[in-house]
Sequence to fold (325 residues):
Amino acid sequence: MTEKFPGLKLQVDPPILVALIPGNWLLKRTTPSWRIKDPTEGFQRRVDEDRAKQIAVTVLDAGRTFPNAIVLATNLQKVECTESTVAFPPDIKLLVVDGQHRLWAQKFSKNIAKYCCLVHLGLTEKEMAQLFVEINDNQKRVPSSLRWDLVRLVRKEDDPYGVRAVDLIYDLNNENRSPLFQRIDLTGEQYEISLKQGSLAPEVRSLVSKRGRGLYDLPYGTQIKILSGFISAVRELDPDGWDNTSGPVYKARVIIALLRLMPDISDREAATNNRDMADMNARIFLKYLQKIDLKTLAPEKIRGQQGSAGMRAIYLTLRRQVLGR
Fold:
């Protein structure tokens, strides 16, 4: 017996349908790999379960809907279709071309979501593979800086530290006395600006969120003052190179490594002079940072130090120079 859902025929040749289908019905008839007969096994091989669970909590459990459709494909040549409904046979097999994580999130939520689906009919396995490549290769990834900037605009209640981080970066970029005034690309679309919010925001978020370290639990005004003072001290290591953006410290990886070093400097100052982070300023930070040998930050020295391991190597190099360990 066929199953009817709200929908319509979007295109006749090649045939494409739009349908609104419950997630629990889809899970029994979809697979992320056409070669795997067991859909559950297929999803477990292809999907990041933690990511699917996060989607379940933030979208499905919250009663929200997805802003875009999932894309499905089948070798079935035709289905019954009226002006307002489409009907699928109960034994239909559907390949998830795009939207695997959104669909698999249904497994972890008691709220049955209704998924808007684009269904491509009459495709061979090769044509399904071509459709998958076409969709996924041509998608333009949203710049991470823009995603962070949207956090500031949306004000997500479930990530207060992320909101605080982008607020701080926004003010560092827009305060005319800031050493980073108009020097941060907030959306990832200003290609002439080398410092991206997407690079700086995770590190600033870490500084404001780690209990007992960094900028945690300090008032906003104090946090922005300390960050501005610290970066001003960094600028003083090479003012000309900073101003013309060509100096060894004016590199995103170096600035990130130095931000990681900031709580260590504060801890040392607390141990030797009984001074808290709230009392730190550019002059005190510079007392430590001026021990850095800028030659070790030359582009040829750090060019190959990428990824988390490379960042840690830069941080450890600076830590040894500044704190002797």
User: Anything to note?
Assistant: Strands lie at 3-11, 16-22, 30-31, 70-73, 80-81, 85-88, 94-98, 114-120, 184-185, 195-196. The two ends are 73 Å apart (CA to CA).
